[in-house]
Amino acid sequence: MMSDLSEEEKAVKQEQERLERGRLLFTRPAEFLLGVVALKHLPPADRVEVSFAGRSNVGKSSLLNALVGQKKLARTSNTPGRTQEVNFFALESKDEDGLYLSDLPGYGYAKVSRSLVKEWTKLLKSYLRGRPNLRRAFVLVDSRHGIKDSDRDIMKMMNECAVSYQIILTKVDKLKKTEQEKVLAETKAEIAKNVAAHPDIIVTSAVKGQGLAELRAAIADLVYGN
Ligand SMILES: Nc1nc2c(ncn2[C@@H]2O[C@H](COP(=O)(O)OP(=O)(O)OP(=O)(O)O)[C@@H](O)[C@H]2O)c(=O)[nH]1
Ligand SMILES: [Mg+2]
Questions:
Q1: Which of 44, 103, 176, 212 is surrounded by the most beta carbons within 10 Å?
Q2: Which of 52, 60, 62 to mutate to test the pocket of ligand 1 (most atoms within 8 A of CB)?
Q3: Residue 122 binned pLDDT confidence (cut-offs 50, 70, 90)
């Protein structure tokens, strides 16, 4: 007779199923829904939403495109501060509830005027505060630079707005393995003090595809429950 699976085998199988659920979720067609500059234009809060925040040029739009497997869904650019609205993308399904992904305006770009920064902060704050279906904000951090003060400001804002968030390290294809490990350890140590931060950090490369399966699975956990 066949013996039952060991605990370890069970855990491996569960993780495989989790990754598969994430993969399937992202086989849905993704569509650009709309870009909003004011809150009154937000789409109805009737489905799970996750958002992507981070400094200008950190790779938010690139990561979104890589996640959904479409090169040009979200506009990427070499000009920091390109995405100036909250852009919404929808993953629709005939049989299941939909999912919204939102691409937030980048922050921390020195060359924008103070009044523009003020506008963005206002938009961001009211979005974070007034979005009941926002299940998690991913805060993207460039793995070459680690957490910066402007990231700390955003995380503080998320804390205050009771939005739970998770750090994603981006562009790890630019780092050697030892450098990756170093920035991961430093980032982990910093967020350990923070209760609103998810303890797991997802290490990604939009270019090489690293971490995408894990990120898709993390989003699927939010859609379907653990
Ligand atoms: N090597 C490498 N480059 C990347 C990666 N992700 C993004 N980039 C590059 O980084 C630059 C900025 O990427 P975007 O995705 O436009 O960044 P963003 O965070 O959306 O920028 P804003 O909309 O201006 O806030 C582009 O030149 C991308 O090609 C990555 O994983 N690896
Ligand atoms: Mg962008």
A1: 103
A2: 62
A3: confident
